[in-house]
What does this fold into?
Amino acid sequence: MAEPLLIVNLNKPKGWTSFDAVKLLRGRLRIRKAGHLGTLDPFATGALPIFLGKATRLIPLFNTTDKVYRATLRLGLRTDTFDEAGTLLQERDASSISEAKVRESASHFTGQLEQLTPIYSAVKVQGVPSYRLARQGKPVERKARTVQVYRLEVLRIALPEVEFEVHCSSGTYIRTLADDWGEHLGVGAHLTALHRVACGPWFHEGNAVQVEDVRAQGEELRGLDPVALLSHLPTLTVDAPEVERLRQGQALTVDPEQLSPWPPKEREAGVSAKVVGSLQNLIAVGSLMWKDTRLTFQPERVLL
It folds into this structure.
């Protein structure tokens, strides 16, 4: 049986690990190989893109995409995990915090930020996820990373709770943002809710499927069109002989007029592109490269 190529954006329920979500699809769709983008904590919900079968080869093309989250923090209480699942570390009086102060402080968490990863995270320390070390009571050094917050919008304030939406770069910890925000206000904070609204422009609430859909449809479940997901890449349509060459990992000589929507500029090397077959099925993803006056397509991920 041919290995399928399937991409499903699952609305992960609260209480599930990201692995639980992958396990569900693997079992119901009877596909062994699977992976996902951007781990969601068990208490979080929302968009979890899952790549199955041959589609796992496409994960690197989306791994660094930005994210949008909707979250709620609770002022006055700080936990060791920076969320509601953790152990209470400190309780402070937040009655002096006004709505105006919350809104003013939000401006300090946009732009380029330096974050320390949570102790309870999947970041590896000498090859071991830091959360495992933390659960064993071993000391964990928090790693610094630079992230970008493009937008942070306060949606609702019902003190001591603050609901907000944030558009950020890949690798941003919203739990850390909440903890840092609480410390900036001087009263501490932790997340009580976290929902991923979108992963880049491709995976969002509008094309997410529910767990009930997966259970009801099983192997009949239809995923997202990989060609449409890669619509931002130039397209080369090929016939059967060229498909066979790609299957063997060979490069193709390309007529720039064959490309849609645009041909790359001369000497612009390494432009990503996709190849589709006569039925508009995805064949390969790779790079367009000029050598003198000749344009070639070098396959990097063949999906046959």
